[in-house]
Amino acid sequence: KIYLCAEHHADDKWVGERLAEYRAPAANTPPPSTAQAVAARAEYEKRLASCIERGVYPDKELFVEENAVSETALKTLPPGVNEAYQFYTRTVTDGDFGSAQVYLWQVSGKPIYIVLCTTDGSDGWVEVYDAHGKPLGCATTDDYKPTWTTKGVARRRVWGE
Q: Which residues is 116 bridged to in the sheet?
């Protein structure tokens, strides 16, 4: 490949490294089956289904400013949450075909982080983390509806893989 500038070369290298990482077995283990992980994914689906049943678009109720993590708080996210947010910001937001945001919800009295990435179309991604940044679930989405999968599968889809 011929690169016009070092920035494009560095970005291509980063993408290649990420694809290799997301193809590796460690990124392709099934979603966690802990009680908290199952409850967090079920709660996401329950809240989404409630919106759909009532004819309310999710971004008008679930993914609103008061549930969003502030710009200041984004700097203090747990490492796993921060890494997911930075990934979607770099690939989707900076790629100018969507946006990423972090939301804080309560599930069974415990805080969980929702990293939501929407696109200019109907597809997107959602990653769910506990208060310490431990992954609870990862999904590709279609109009917010999740298909729970592995981190590797979901993130490779950003590049159409």
A: 101, 126
